[in-house]
Write a structure and sequence with these properties.
The protein has 179 residues and is α+β, with helices and mostly antiparallel strands. 22% of the residues lie in helices and 31% in strands. The longest helix has 22 residues.
Amino acid sequence: MKRGIIVACILSTMLLMACGPEISGENITENQSVTGGTVTENSEARVDISDFSDETSKFYGGELEDDLSDALDTTAVISDDNYDYYLSDGAIEVRDAQVGDGYTVVMNREMDNFSIYGVYVGMSSDEAVKILEDQGLKEESDDYTTIYAKDKYDFYVTFDAEDGTVTQVNYSKVIPSAC
């Protein structure tokens, strides 16, 4: 009898440890983690443009702007000239290509919930380079700009920095011409 009670106590303790927050009534979101029974917020949870790499913008019949605005819990507003979409009060822009075929997603200011291939405004430029290179994007430079790409005919990432801090990040998606 005593042995059965001890086994029951051990099993119930193991069950409580494994299911802790769920049993205690707390709901765990993807932005939270559990360590030692304590629920903490994960500040690194960001919507990343890489999660939308198979999508196209409305300029090419896609729904990128709507899907991105849903993921960021904001709205996409089209510009007066119908060439740009603004999300998060202009922090993000989706622009139709001015030259060639494609579109560009621009991150104009610091946000705590968005990144472009892991890079975001406010991080150090050295960290940005490392993150891009760790994902297999290779640096290519010319007299005018530096891009990071696996295949620059598919997409590439650029960023501007001032005093070692990223001030703007761009994702340019190339759409092959229908011709």
